[in-house]
Model the fold of this input.
Amino acid sequence: MADIEQRTARADALGELLPPMTRNEAAVEAARCLMCYDAPCTHACPTHIDIPKFIKKIATENLRGSARTILESNLLGATCARVCPVQELCEGACVLGTEHKPIAIGRLQRHAMDFVYAKGTDLFQPGEATGKKVAIIGAGPAGLSCAGELAKRGHSVTLFEKRDLAGGLSTYGIIGLREPAEVARAEVAMVERLGVKLETGKELGTDFTLADLQANFGAVFLGVGLGATPGLGIPGEEYIIDGLEYIEQSKLDAPNLVIGRNVVVIGAGNTAIDCATIAKRLGASQVTMVYRRTEKEMTAYAHEYDFIKREGVSFCFLTQPVRVHAENGMVNSLECLRMSLGPADASGRPSPQPVAGSEFFLPADQVVKAIGQQKPSLASRLKLKTEKGFIQVNSNFETSLPGIYAGGDCIRARGAASTVRAVQDGKLAGHSIHERLVEHG
Ligand SMILES: Cc1cc2nc3c(=O)[nH]c(=O)nc-3n(C[C@H](O)[C@H](O)[C@H](O)COP(=O)(O)OP(=O)(O)OC[C@H]3O[C@@H](n4cnc5c(N)ncnc54)[C@H](O)[C@@H]3O)c2cc1C
Ligand code: SF4
Done:
């Protein structure tokens, strides 16, 4: 009984933060939209969804048509409705934002998408078979988007994914508060119904080679994302929990996730904020985020920073962890150094410099690191040209090897990685691959 109660409490604590809109709320919100000509919200959307058009269809109670408008530009509309930083994109550009409240575009999009998924409506069918074969590596947003676009055009697509579940970071990495894993699963199933053959537990480089793919497929798309969290290289590192694993367990195995009473999260990006949120919501009495620069240099979105402060998480800025202390296998503190900011480093941000003799101990019984992900190691193993460690592509998303395309986080040498950008890459790469297959007869 206690176990069931704990499961329910944890599911509730990490359940989707924003409630769905009622039909009436959606109708009232849609009616506020000015249906701008050459709408700035559409320009600000990386997938260029015709936002006034889908909102107008909600206003006229045509939810199926609204969802179609969304999916024509963005096949992962249900995920993006939830995870997109709308404050920085469409809603940030809404003309009503300056004097009134911007239109709640993300929530309206979710309203239309949830309608079609709840009804089990498929809005697209597989295209007439072309006999051309494409291999997609990685079933994250980039791979799924590319696979779906090609299947709609009748190509035979096989999607290889090394993990047991498809969906990439939408399934494993984005906190349930923002996107429950079921939403990603529903989108994967939709892409499969378009005729895409999904093969999970199959890793390029282990189970098959690029040469195997080149011999059997007309084109290949790499949507392999980024690597694991890098090490900090400090004594006691073995006691530090990987933030991505922490989030993954909170989504897929929450009842068994061990939460400390006094949790320290190393890092100050969006992933670190997600880890701190999980710790706080699942019962830690004290959660502290440790960052070696100041709040000005944090990479987390401003709205995420505001959110985590409201959750009651504390911050220790200008602080560098140097050693984890443990006794009998149990962590008891994180030794840190105070930092000051010096001249800009390669990232363009002021470089943190240790203040001599400033060591101090931060009490902690759990330390989680969320300091970003490593560059895609596959790039060098496949001898692909790289840019700042990311796979280099041309304007058609083709890599330095002809017929091998790439998109998503693995090519994001510039700008912030995001789901919607990965979806757009996958879509555009799909268009380029289609052109190639058609041209090559
Ligand atoms: C904790 C966290 C929270 C985030 N929150 C947000 C958010 O709120 N909003 C937002 O817009 N973005 C967010 N992001 C970023 C977003 O998740 C990514 O930009 C997006 O998932 C990138 O999609 P992708 O398809 O390029 O890569 P991924 O989602 O990483 O997918 C890559 C897939 O390729 C597979 N793969 C890798 N190598 C191989 C191989 N050799 N063979 C077969 N398969 C392979 C992987 O297993 C994985 O499934 C977040 C990221 C993290 C880490
Ligand atoms: S900018 Fe705002 S008001 Fe104008 S079309 Fe977009 S959502 Fe509607």
